[in-house]
Amino acid sequence: xxxxxxxxxxxxxxxxxxxxxxxxxxxxxxxxxxxxxxxxxxxxxxxxxxxxxxxxxxxxxxxxxxxxxxxxxxxxxxxxxxxxxxxxxxxxxxxxxxxxxxxxxxxxxxxxxxxxxxxxxxxxxxxxxxxxxxxxxxxxxxxxxxxxxxxxxxxxxxxxxxxxxxxxxxxxxxxxxxxxxxxxxxxxxxxxxxxxxxxxxxxxxxxxxxxxxxxxxxxxxxxxxx
Length: 226
Fold this sequence. Notes:
This protein is α/β, with parallel strands linked by helices and 226 residues long. The protein contains five helices and twelve strands. It has helices at residues 2-17, 36-46, 57-65, 132-148, 181-203; strands at 24-28, 70-78, 82-89, 92-96, 101-104, 109-111, 124-126, 153-158, 164-168, 173-177, 205-211, 219-224. The chain has a nine-stranded mixed beta sheet, covered by helices on one side. A three-stranded mixed beta sheet has the order 1-3-2. Strand 4 (92-96) and strand 5 form a beta hairpin. Helix 2 packs across helix 3 and helix 4 (132-148) crosses helix 5 (181-203). It starts with a helix and ends with a strand.
């Protein structure tokens, strides 16, 4: 008798579920970049409508995961007619080597479409493949040194010879070299304001780059201000 009741219950659930359409989409999670429309369109690309039993949430999950800002996604059905989507986004901190690749605070690289380029204000970090974590770590160190001395960092990274370069917000480029880059940057913030006050302002010149690859001091390349 108990078995009979259970079987009848299962039959009723299957029969009823097969006629119930999944039509209510519930979206949750901390989102900053992924819109409701993008998620809804991703769901509709899999199937415009489906039954509660037959709706393939794995395909839906895969489609939403392909959206540029989505790091993780969980999709589940809730009786009788809900599709619940929970999203975790990437948290970008910088562009990486180009304006369509971004770097997270965990040094994970992800790609954004051309239509979303340059919408956000982030520094540009650059370096050879596999150096993103080292570049990101040094970027934060550079950032603190410069912020403490009221400089703003626009770009930082290493070239193919693993020489460190920084570009300030005003366009001035700092060449730090392969070694002692922290000490050299500290030397810059200590002595450059004195040099700037004595020389640049009175000559109406712009500092194109500063080479700090010396045991003491630095060399400066200037161009006339337009």
